[in-house]
Amino acid sequence: MTSFLSADVENGNRTNADRAYDHIREQLIMLDIRPGDPINDDQLAAALGLGRTPVREALKRLERERLVIAYPRRGTFATMVDLTDLADISEIRKQLEPTAAARAARTATSQACDELSRLAAEISAVTDDDEPHEVLRKDVHVHRAIYRASGNPHLEDILVSLDAHATRIWCLFLDRLPGVADHVREHIPLIEAIIAGDPEAAAAQTLAHVTGFEQTIRSLL
User: Fold this and answer.
1) 214 vs 219: CA distance, rounded Å
2) Which residue of 23, 39, 86, 165 is 20 to 30 Å from 209, comparing CA positions?
């Protein structure tokens, strides 16, 4: 299983709190920890081979991202997936995702382009027979690589958070969604536009992708 990596991890500055954060966050996003499930920090610490302090630090960070919620005397729980958030999330993503993609097309480093090229090759091999959760993980990897390539850490942070909540919604319907592989392969022309330095095409491809996500989910409601 490929894990989602924080910026600190990718830069090699990994702490125990980062390790705990990455692990728990992935489980929350992919609904391996189901919405509403209690989160036992002792069990998580034991599973990760860590102390309780880094796990608690990770949970505080995840609470700020609205992925967990802590109640006095009750404990910490995975937040529910609220489908009424779909419109709000989509409204912001339609504005900011094309901005990030266009910016990436203008400013992406050669290293960022190499990473995007590698991801494009990886998702081009995705088939309809692949396990949907693993396919969706590739979707998250591509999004995060594009956000990083934009070179704006503030924009990246906002979009990483929004994409996490959008992915949770996607996972909720994953067993009913047709064409998950097609959805992920939509990133190939987007990546090609970024590498070619075409901000207009990159923005247009991104808007179509985000709009398609919203329409697909709404068709199931």
Assistant:
1) 9
2) 23
- Reported for 33-36, long-range contacts at CB under 8 A and 24+ positions apart, including other chains, are 33/78, 34/78, 35/78, 35/79, 35/80, 35/81, 35/168, 35/172, 36/77, 36/78, 36/80
Q: Which helix (H) or strand (E) holds 95?
A: helix 85-107
Closest-CA residue to 148 (of 121, 111, 93, 118): 111
pLDDT in tens, 65-124: 999 999 998 999 999 998 888 999 999 999 999 999 999 999 999 999 999 999 999 999
Q: How far apart are CA 194 and CA 94, in angstroms?
A: 17
